[in-house]
Design a protein that fits this description.
It is an enzyme of class 1 (oxidoreductase). The termini are close together. The protein is built from no helices and ten strands. The protein has about 110 residues and is mainly β. It has a single domain, classed as 3-layer Sandwich (Rieske Iron-sulfur Protein). Bound molecules: FE2/S2 (inorganic) cluster (FES).
Length: about 110
């Protein structure tokens, strides 16, 4: 399966201070014509997925999150914050690794 993200796999981008994302919430960052949703979990970890739900384009950064998953705000499909895989459905989004304020796409 090919990576659906058009972002450069080698790029590292400064997304600003982590404090800009309240614990337990997500924010959408636009990078050129692409967008990623970055989540700051309540345990302090960061997770990043493609911003738009593959179902009908819901903005995942506006969804409810726990330390394991995000629920799309439009129709509540769940996606793993660890892998981007759909939970109980076959859709998926790309997942990115977060390193401090920078992001680097995951090879997984
Ligand atoms: S748009 Fe995300 S579940 Fe429908």
């Amino acid at each position: 399966m090919s990576d659906p993200s058009p972002l450069d796999k080698e790029a590292r981008l400064d997304l600003g201070p982590v404090q800009a994302i309240p614990p337990g919430q997500g924010r959408c960052f636009r990078i050129g014509s692409s967008a990623i949703a970055v989540f700051r979990l309540r345990d302090g970890a960061l997770r990043a997925l493609d911003a738009h739900c593959p179902h009908q384009g819901g903005l995942l950064s506006d969804g409810l999150v726990d330390n394991e998953k995000v629920l799309c705000p439009l129709h509540a499909l769940a996606f793993s914050l660890h892998t981007g895989a759909g939970l109980h459905h076959s859709l998926r989004v790309s997942r990115y690794k977060e390193i401090g304020r920078a992001r680097m796409p995951s090879s997984a």
